[in-house]
Amino acid sequence: MLMQLTLGGFAQGAIYALIALSLTVVYRSTTVVNFGHGDFVMAGAFLSYVLVVLAGIAFLPAAALAMIAMFVLGVLFSKGLIRPIRGGPHIGLALMCISAGYVLRGIARMVWGREVLPMPAVFDMEPIFLGDLVITGDAVFIIGTVLVLLILFFGVLALTDLGKMVQAVYQSPRGARLIGLNVERFNDFSWGIGAALGALGGILVAPVSLLHPDLGASFLIKGFAAMTLGGFGSLGGAVLGGILLGLAEQYAGAYLDSALIEITAYVVIVLVLFIRPQGLFGRKAVVKV
Amino acid sequence: MPSARQRQLRTLLFWAVPALLLLLPLATNAYTQFIVNGMLISVLVTLGFTLVIGNLGQLAFANTAFFGIGAYASAILSAKLGLPWIVTIPLAGVLGALGGFLASSAALRGIRSYYLAIITLAFGELMRWAYLHSKPLTGGTDGLPLPREAMFGISLSDDTLKFYIFLAVTVLLVKATLNLMRSRFGRAVMAVRENEIATASLAIPTARVILVSFIWSGFVVGCAGALFARHVGHVFPESFGMLHLIASFAMVLVGGLGSVLGAVLGAVLLTALPEYLRAFPGMEELFFGLIVAAVLVAMPMGLASLLRRLSPIFVERYYREES
Amino acid sequence: MNKLTSLMAVAAFAAAPALAQDAEWETQGLTDDAITIGVMGPFSGNASSYSKALIGMMAYYDKVNEEGGVHGRKLVAVQEDTACDSAKGLAAAKKLISQDEVFMLQGNSCSGVALALRPTIEEAGLPWIVAHAVSDSISTPLAGNIFHGVPTGSANGRAMAAFVLSKPDTENVAIIEHSNDWAHSYSNPARDYLKEQGVEPTAELTMERGQTDATAQVLKLRQNKPDFIIAALYEAETAIFLRDLKKYGMGDIPVMGTAGTDLENTLKRTGDFDTVKNYYVIHSYVDNLDGEKMKPWGDMIHKYYPDEELSTFSFVSIGSAEALVSALEAVGPDLTRSKLIAALEEVRDFDTGILSDPITWTPEDHQGVKGSAVAGFVDGEPTVLKAWGQPY
């Protein structure tokens, strides 16, 4: 049972990790936390649905197209709505993100509000039985995809010139601007990447669940919990936080009470911020006055 | 700054509005009266919210939590302990204030900005989970109905009677908040928002300022929760979910962050508008989302800033135009 | 203060005519060629898929109107959105009652909203036929003007438990559900029935809306080895739960679901017959959703709402609309609210041709539908059942 829960926890955690990572990408470069991110995730899932079911495109190209579309949307959002209020207080930025999320949700509701949409299964494979352990296609596909993506992401960050540029901006946006980097454009690009990665979370979830406009809300909180646990602003921490949250949910649900699955994320947020606000790897979250 | 004459005019205006409102029930039916009653509740919720996010400048989203605490406190005290509902209003306020104290304890531990937003969101959802899973006390998913009750020989299901009570509570709390913000304390609140460290260096106890602001916000919203419990007559966990947050945001922003007058305007306007949109169900999220985005870009200080330009009598003394 | 009390007296006086059941009140919302009916439902918000029930019901009004109406009067629906929110629902009801001044109300899908509405509508006194919400407390204790036109939660929950126990040698029953009023309205009566029969559920689990994985729950069940599982879960979570059940090698355990799901769509969703072959649902109808006897009703809905996708909700409110029309017929052309209420209380064993159980309203009992059939796959075909192994 422990092994099975661990596998399930990894599969769920992989999705949370992806969402926390995409939130962190935006946060690190722009210091904005996207409170509408859950709805970006939902939008990604719905876009892939439109492409697969309504336009008849195969899953993989459809997923790629949906991610590209969400990338563009993220860039446009940054250019059109975030830039004009950048200098303002945090509250304005947070509210802008929330309202963008509600607009996306409103659109989804207008079009599909009264139907619950099934997405055809994509990774159909016979489950593998290893003694007591059952390994399913979904789990393999989700964990595999996220793993490949993470290797790619951290590889680019550590080994390429682009990655060095990103790290430079992270360390000092002003310094980066002085050496001629276009930080504004870099920020737009981060919003695009964040939106696309978040959308991938939605795309991976879509075939194993059903689509409805409120899909994103719970993922936003899971993303926050993962980020908080891993340490706000730490890319690696976000990933680890996501996996740990996935595992914690499974263990709490099976060994304590299944009613606890729903609030694991909230409890994690409250406990971490009160006991160890810097999370596992982050810088201190508290302000000293 | 308004002159002495203008200040007199302002006082007159302040009391003229509720005085005129006393006549309102002559012009309403049960439906429109119900909507007006809902507006008064929204005014209080928005007021409490704007105090923390506008005046104090803290990103605390615990508003729905305070509201739910107030509503459940009122319902439990009147249904389980048999207290008259009117008595539960200040008690609900006190429990809301306790919620405010908890939220401030997070802020005072240095959990600020986005962290504060996230932890207060989590707090709200944990409360909702608690309502769901404490069935003996809260009725769980079936919710808790308020007992039938009469005052002055009139049933409390009567919307006109409720209106007069709601109006009295609202006027009282709005006036108290205005006075609070015009006092030394109000200036300290603004100072904390502008620069906490500099304020502390002036020997102003910033921690106490933050604490009191949260507690007052919790009190106002908790009282609003008690009104809401009677307004609907039945409290359900679903009424206090995150979905209701966007409407609160929109009310605060449209009225103008950190403005008492703005809170009133925003709440009245945005409670009324969706009723006109009844013919187009499902547009609400889109509508509120677009409004918030538009106000942020085009009119970040909301309607209150327009009024301030119109006449100095609308200037709230310690409110600074840009933030 | 003096002014205030006198004003209140004036206001109370102004409100008084609405309470007095005088002649004018009796025919409010009625003209020579129209009966206005307030139709409340969740036309927006996260429960808007339930509003299909009201679409089906209004399609039936359209059909009646096309055939000439009732005693020359057309049924005119005045639609109001509740968004499944109690405050919004209350505003909708007050609008229909005191602003639109409709003759009667029919509809409402969300039990929570209906519970919040009950005191207001009871006080207003106009007839209300609850056409979709299932909570028993909407119609018990009896309110003179409130009629329940669908099987209530207890009727459904008991039918679920009875079906579970009708399978020979069922001893070990597990329950999995959402923690919301909808799920509890099924599971609590089911628990009561089991208890009456001396069966105590051996495992009680929750799975929340939006969870995409049921591993923890299923593994708990695997240790528990139930003979039957009662699942009060929405469509999406039902599909996920069944999928995970099969995944972990427990696909042979029968699962009893609610009227919120149906076999056809659950099969479509899981895309795999093996996953759903042991799934049973409460099915309040005389035939399968795509069966012969249901086809005319589906065609009727599509005639007036061509783009409407049909689900199990689409048909649930039509039966009560038929009963309403029969009561209106019985009253005759000289219609009043009191006469309609009296006629509704005369409805006995009314066969709707769509609900599996007849509608009976008496002056003592307004819960009209006392039972539900069950549907399950028999030889690969969805089949309506009375009990384990017994076709309807």
Describe the structure.
The complex is a heterotrimer of chains A (289), B (323) and C (392). With 289 residues, chain A is mostly helical. Chain A contains eleven helices and four strands. By secondary structure, chain B is an all-alpha fold. Helices cover 71% and strands 2% of the residues of chain B. In chain B, the strands form two sheets. A two-stranded antiparallel ribbon of chain B has the order 1-4. In chain B, helix 2 packs across helix 11. The longest helix of chain B is centred in the last third of the chain and has 27 residues, at 206-232. With 392 residues, chain C is α/β, with parallel strands linked by helices. The radius of gyration of chain C is 22 Å and the shape is elongated. Chains in contact: A-B, A-C, B-C. At the A-B interface, helix 4, helix 9 and helix 11 of A face helix 5, helix 9, helix 11 and helix 13 of B.
Assigned CATH architecture of the largest domain in chain C: 3-Layer(aba) Sandwich
Roughly how much helix do the residues of chain C carry, as a percent range? Answer: 40-55%
Mean residue pLDDT of chain A: 87
Number of helices of chain A: 11
Number of helices of chain C: 14
What would the CATH topology of the largest domain in chain C be?
A: Rossmann fold
Largest interface: A-B, 47 and 49 residues
- CATH class of the largest domain in chain C reads Alpha Beta
Quick rundown:
The complex is a heterotrimer of chains A (289), B (323) and C (392). By secondary structure, chain A is mostly helical.
Characteristic key phrases:
heterotrimer, A: about 290 residues, mainly alpha, two-stranded antiparallel sheet, 11 helices, C: about 400 residues, alpha/beta, Rossmann fold, 2 domains, eight-stranded mixed sheet, six-stranded parallel sheet, about 20% strand
Give the topology:
The complex is a heterotrimer of chains A (289), B (323) and C (392).
Chain A: H1 2-30, H2 37-54, H3 59-82, H4 90-112, E1 117-118, E2 128-130, E3 133-135, H5 137-159, H6 161-171, H7 173-178, H8 183-205, E4 210-211, H9 215-230, H10 235-256, H11 264-275
Antiparallel strand pairs in A: 1-4, 2-3
Helix pairs in contact in A: 1-5, 1-8, 1-9, 1-10, 2-3, 2-4, 2-8, 2-9, 3-8, 5-6, 9-10, 9-11
Chain B: H1 4-21, H2 30-55, H3 63-79, H4 85-108, H5 113-133, H6 135-138, E1 144-145, E2 150-151, E3 154-155, H7 159-182, H8 184-194, H9 196-201, H10 206-232, E4 234-235, H11 245-255, H12 260-276, H13 284-298, H14 302-310
Antiparallel strand pairs in B: 1-4, 2-3
Helix pairs in contact in B: 2-7, 2-10, 2-11, 2-12, 3-4, 3-5, 3-10, 4-10, 7-10, 8-10, 11-12, 11-13
Chain C: H1 2-19, H2 23-26, E1 34-41, H3 52-66, E2 74-81, H4 86-99, E3 104-107, H5 111-124, E4 128-130, E5 146-151, H6 153-166, E6 173-177, H7 181-196, E7 203-206, H8 215-224, E8 228-232, H9 235-247, E9 255-257, H10 263-270, H11 273-276, E10 279-283, H12 295-304, H13 318-331, H14 337-344, E11 367-369, E12 373-378, E13 381-387, E14 390-391
Parallel strand pairs in C: 1-2, 1-3, 3-4, 4-5, 5-11, 6-7, 6-8, 8-9, 9-10
Antiparallel strand pairs in C: 10-12, 12-13, 13-14
